[in-house]
Specification:
Blueprint: E1 2-11, H1 18-30, E2 31-39, H2 50-60, E3 67-72, H3 76-82, E4 87-92, H4 95-111, E5 116-121, H5 131-139, H6 150-172
The protein binds 4'-phosphopantetheine.
4'-phosphopantetheine (PNS) binds at residues 10-12, 39, 41, 75-76, 104, 107-108.
């Protein structure tokens, strides 16, 4: 354990998955404290509100005593500077993640040369899971139980059921 080191795990987490939980667990064993920093990112079409994503991440990490979940806006490097942290945690699943992550890590380091990004690899059981795929499967009525924690599955079902009902009502009008 790196005593006294505060690390930040940023993302949109829409929704948080078993893969995210695996990464935050691994990070919590390596550093004194992990801040899960959730961004609103207006350019993305989120299925869950910022408050719901915070609530879900807090629920799934309630047993990890050194993990705190917060939201941030603006540049990530500015947030890191504000809380005096210089370590970013990101998860890597497959080679396809690498280009985007590499670019982001180098850009963040260019914006603040003290920042280091540390990549953790998920358990191989989660390498194919992505929030976008899970949303699509849930929207189409597929089983997502193996990919997300129970509370996330419940919330996704609520949203997707609502969405499906709206579509049925809509199509019955014509
Ligand atoms: O895992 P995600 O959802 O793709 O996370 C992307 C995230 C939130 C880490 C990234 O978009 C970000 O840092 N946004 C904050 C704005 C910012 O600092 N942008 C420059 C990144 S190089």
């Amino acid at each position: 354990m790196n005593k006294g080191i505060l690390a930040v795990y940023p993302g949109s987490f829409d929704p948080p998955t078993n893969g995210h939980l695996d990464i935050v667990f691994r990070a919590s064993c390596l550093f004194s404290k992990i801040i899960v920093a959730i961004t609103e990112n207006a350019s993305k079409n989120h299925i869950f509100s910022l408050n719901k994503r915070i609530d879900l991440f807090q629920k799934i990490t309630k047993n990890l005593k050194n993990v705190e979940v917060i939201s941030f806006s603006g540049l990530l490097v500015n947030y890191l500077e504000k809380i005096n942290s210089f370590i970013l945690i990101r998860g890597l699943r497959a080679l396809s993640d690498f280009e985007y992550e590499f670019q982001m890590a180098l850009m963040n380091r260019k914006l603040n040369k003290k920042i280091e990004t540390i990549f953790l690899m998920t358990d191989q059981a989660y390498t194919f899971i992505s929030s976008n795929m899970i949303k699509e499967i849930a929207m189409l009525g597929g089983n997502i139980a193996d990919f997300v924690p129970d509370c996330v599955e419940k919330e996704l079902k609520k949203v997707c059921y609502c969405d499906l009902s709206k579509k049925i009502i809509q199509s019955s009008k014509y």
